Amino acid sequence: MTDVIPGLSVRASRYDVLFCDVWGVIHNGISAFKNATEALCRFREKGGKVVLLTNSPNPSRFVEAQLKRLGAPRPSYDSIVSSGDVTVSLLAERVDKGIFRIGPRGELALFEELKALYGKAAHLVPLKKAQSVLCIGLVDPVREVPEDYDALLKAMHVRRLELICANPDIVVEDGGVLLYCAGAIAERYSAIGGKVIHAGKPHALIYERAIALASAPAPINRSRVLVIGDAMRTDIKGACAQGFDSLFVTSGIHRNELHRGSGAAGLDKAAFRQFLGGADCMPTAAIPELVW
Q1: Measuring CA to CA, how many Å separate 211 from each of 121, 166, 206, 266?
Q2: 85-198 in CATH: which number?
């Protein structure tokens, strides 16, 4: 059975590196969680290293700017790896191929980063001319649902187009509202036999980049890495696949299933046991919210 712990300090001495999720763990899209960022600061003060690991489709420098706006102190982390960073690398490998884009209008950060880092522009084309498809998210995540894209996905599958998913999350919490992400579209494409390349958690590419960052100047001991996240499907599953310990934050996207209220007292222990009973991988420990 997964232990529910009162604070990170209970386990902190076992680890040298934290790979910590962002949205749902250290902020909710409106403001940073003071207790969470304080816990990360305390870990770093004791000599630990913190790499923020996010499925944001934006490059990490945009994530850093957002964290600053939301009030997350810079000393709470060493570096950031985003799904957007991995996506830019994938785009660079396909810069000469026609790419059809799915995502919010005006969302150009990935293409700006591609130009800044590689001096190349993406070749965006209509679907009928595309060799690959990039999914950043739903065009209008407030009004649309993934099923709205089924006809488009069928047309893509007929042409055997690969789909690059810039954000494997299914949903994200934005100020208490759950919105669908690119992962929800990618999941439907995969279900009809489409080829999907995932840039973020729980897939290997993003962890390879995070491990490389954490290994400077010396290689890390994988047994002393702790993954912190609020999503079983991405954070905890990814940690299990990589052989890392994990800390599951129960008050994130699974809050409605697991919590009657806020804090440790709000965790419904019976619901938590039932929830874990249906999981295909187990977190090493759980915590109602990230605190020291």
Answers
A1: 28, 19, 9, 35
A2: 3.40.50.1000
